[in-house]
Amino acid sequence: MSSQEIPEENLPSAQDADQPHGSVAVKDDPFADPGLPPHEHRIQDIDERAAKRSERVVAFLFVLSMLSTIAFIAAFVAIKPGKSIYVFPIGHISALNFALGMTLGLALFCIGAGAVHWARTLMSDVEVADERHAIEAEPAVKAKVLADFKQGAQESQFGRRKLIRNTLFGAVAMVPLSGIVLLRDLGPLPEDKLRHTAWKAGKLLVNVNTNEPLRPSDIAVGSLTFAKPEGVEEHDEDFQQVMGKAALMLVRIQPEDIKDKQELAWGHEGIVAYSKVCTHVGCPISLYEQQTHHVLCPCHQSTFDLSDGARVIFGPAGHALPQLRIGVSAEGYLQALGDFAEPVGPAFWERG
């Protein structure tokens, strides 16, 4: 094809004469960096009254968060768990759950909304382009980061806007109180309930199997008998809870075989009464060895010597079994002369 046959638009122009042989001229770069658009100032940047209004809005949200946290605590204390309310269109729901969810949700929402409004209206919104750098920061980069941080802190007006700062501190400090209050829902406070059982002075010792009061003659030497307090019945709603602390085992030992003087004094004719609840994790003790007078907990093999104050001679139990002081009533039945002298079962943190 001759040059005369080449379309005119495909012929090199006069501007291409200076280009090296074989190069292609590009008129416009389609991937050129367009740059950042001009920065537009917000009303808060040029009007201090508008900035004050935004500051009050943020502070209002933080204060509302604090009030919601207080309402959460008040609802937890005042509203009974069994109370229900009707909420359209959900229906009947727990008033306590509804109040706790609404107040805690509002407290968290107000902190988030306040922080967002603060950032959008008062903090600097100037876009800054920064060159990418290696992962390992050089000293100059670290100095720049610190300088940028100080500049950002200054532009956020955190130090200047004391109202926002103080209300934010209050809102953030009070929100965790909701979680602390929820710990109260783990169960009723123990108070001194773990230190006392159903045994009292004058309570008859009733055989668990026959449900009849026990006489000294009912307990033979070398035998193990289980007893409960008089008036405690299996059909009672709190039977298991009561017996969890009051379960008693009786054993008759020859008085000359009893080594502990207090044990001998607190028994009757060699009949001694000890808590059936293991002092390790509260398992029921039921295995008795006649020759050694040892009782064994079947759970973790804690072993107690009933002829020597029920002290621990083997296993993980931390202390001896509590003894119940017993005597005989006017009718000839075995009776308690008081409660256990110490808490029964495993140790607990209030025990000291």
TrEMBL record:
GO terms for cellular component: plasma membrane. It is found in: Cell membrane. SUPFAM superfamilies: ISP domain (SSF50022). The keyword Transport applies. InterPro entries: QcrA_N (IPR045603), Rieske_2Fe-2S (IPR017941), Rieske_2Fe-2S_sf (IPR036922), Rieske_Fe-S_prot (IPR014349). PROSITE patterns: RIESKE. Residues 240-335 form the Rieske domain. CDD domains: Rieske. It is a multi-pass membrane protein. The chain crosses the membrane at residues 57-79, 85-116, 163-183. Keywords: 2Fe-2S, Cell membrane, Disulfide bond, Electron transport, Iron, Iron-sulfur, Membrane, Metal-binding, Oxidoreductase, Respiratory chain, Transmembrane, Transmembrane helix, Transport. It holds the Pfam family QcrA_N. Residues 1-40 are annotated as: Disordered. GO terms for molecular function: 2 iron, 2 sulfur cluster binding; metal ion binding; monooxygenase activity; oxidoreductase activity, acting on paired donors, with incorporation or reduction of molecular oxygen. It comes from the Bacteria. The cytochrome bc1 complex is composed of a cytochrome b (QcrB), the Rieske iron-sulfur protein (QcrA) and a diheme cytochrome c (QcrC) subunit. Iron-sulfur subunit of the cytochrome bc1 complex, an essential component of the respiratory electron transport chain required for ATP synthesis. The bc1 complex catalyzes the oxidation of menaquinol and the reduction of cytochrome c in the respiratory chain. The bc1 complex operates through a Q-cycle mechanism that couples electron transfer to generation of the proton gradient that drives ATP synthesis. Belongs to the Rieske iron-sulfur protein family. This is Cytochrome bc1 complex Rieske iron-sulfur subunit. It comes from Streptomyces antnestii.
